[in-house]
Specification:
This protein has 123 residues and is of the alpha+beta class. β2 and β3 form a beta hairpin. It is elongated, with a radius of gyration of 21 Å. It binds zinc ion (ZN). The site of zinc ion has 8 residues, from loops.
Length: 123
């Protein structure tokens, strides 16, 4: 449950940070006309906030990877919990779940599935 929540948060993290910055831009734009020093303050908070968000993202990814490695070490899929793991590239440590098709590398990082473009239909 907690791992699932952490996984969703990690995967949506970039979009969430982008949303926060977009909202900050909107607020800063409004304050240009009302109280210009607030815009300047928001600018500097945003710039130094990048360091904070980058560090937070690193911590989230690291915790998720450690959690995934612990489950992979037990032979369980971190995504669905099935014991149906198989090695994709022998020696590279990449694991694929036979039940949900999720892939993880040796460090526990989830590998985004490649979605192939559909072939154009020839008339
Ligand atoms: Zn699975």
């Amino acid at each position: 449950m907690l791992l699932k929540l952490l996984r969703q948060l990690t995967r949506a993290y970039g979009y969430a940070v982008f949303g926060i910055y977009l909202a900050a831009f909107g607020i800063a734009f409004l304050f240009v006309f009302i109280f210009p020093p607030a815009t300047l303050a928001l600018l500097f908070i945003s710039i130094f906030g990048l360091l904070f968000f980058n560090a937070l993202g690193f911590v989230l990814r690291t915790v998720e990877r450690r959690w995934n490695r612990a489950r992979l070490g037990k032979g369980l899929c971190p995504e669905c919990g099935a014991a149906a793991l198989s090695s994709v590239v022998v020696g590279a440590g990449e694991m694929r779940c036979g039940a949900c098709d999720a892939r993880h590398d040796a460090q526990g990082t989830w590998i985004k599935p490649v979605v192939h473009e559909p072939e154009p239909v020839q008339a």
